[in-house]
User: What shape does this take?
Amino acid sequence: MAGIHVAKATRLPMQAKDTVEVEAGRGIVGDRYHGTRHRHVTVQSRETLDEAARVFGREVASELTRRNVTVSHGVVPRDPGARIRVGEVLLEVVRVAAPCKLLDDTIGAGAQEALRRRAGTVFRVLEGGTIRVGDPVDLGVDLSSPVPRPA
Assistant: This one.
């Protein structure tokens, strides 16, 4: 895994972290979305950001997209119900993360459009634990194995 970023409030800058604690049914401890109903963790791919950069015409820094986790390679699933594992943490897709207008302010005019369909995915946390930069990532967890649902 390439990076972890959190923000304590909606418009505050994202802060890089080496390690975060993630709670089942709640999200990343210390992040603005901790405790929300379904938007626990957002995940994007560095490969997809590089694709957006080609469309945009310059680099798209991971922390400026406002997503929590950036995986180094692969395509992050977008279909609701799909699961991934990041380190100890099991995540389930809720929906695609749509890029917001704020990206044109923080990255530059045209960033929102360049990131359309490339802005990552919103997940709920099924199994909590610790996530560390460098942890292994499995972008295709077998759906046939039973997983407890958060209460």
Notes: The longest strand covers residues 89-96. The helical segments are 46-56, 102-106, 111-115.
